User: What shape does this take?
Amino acid sequence: MSINMDQEEKWELRLYIAGQTPKSVLALKNITKYCREYLEGRYTIEVIDLLKNPRLAEGDQIFAIPTLVRKVPEPLRKIIGDLSNEEKVLVGLNIRLLDEPNVMSGSNGISKHNIIPVPNAIPNGK
Assistant: This one.
């Protein structure tokens, strides 16, 4: 099995929250679960509570919370909400699924064995 260098790249994520609201707690729980499953050992999550540090919202232009920001790999990407929709979060982070229909995990058919992080992918037609 060959190793794709993109798979070894470190992912730096920043989650902006405002206190311990239900959506903020759920967002942290969800992104932690997805990272453990799909980016094991290759990620960091920095949690920024805007109730404690409101000025930090300016740097990443945060206008809604919770907001997840993918700092690295570039380009920067943002996802707003509680991150409950796993498929949308994976697409938003640009984690692409491989076509391996025989590998199934859970009801969504997504397995950590059939994904490749694609940090520099260019959308079709652009």
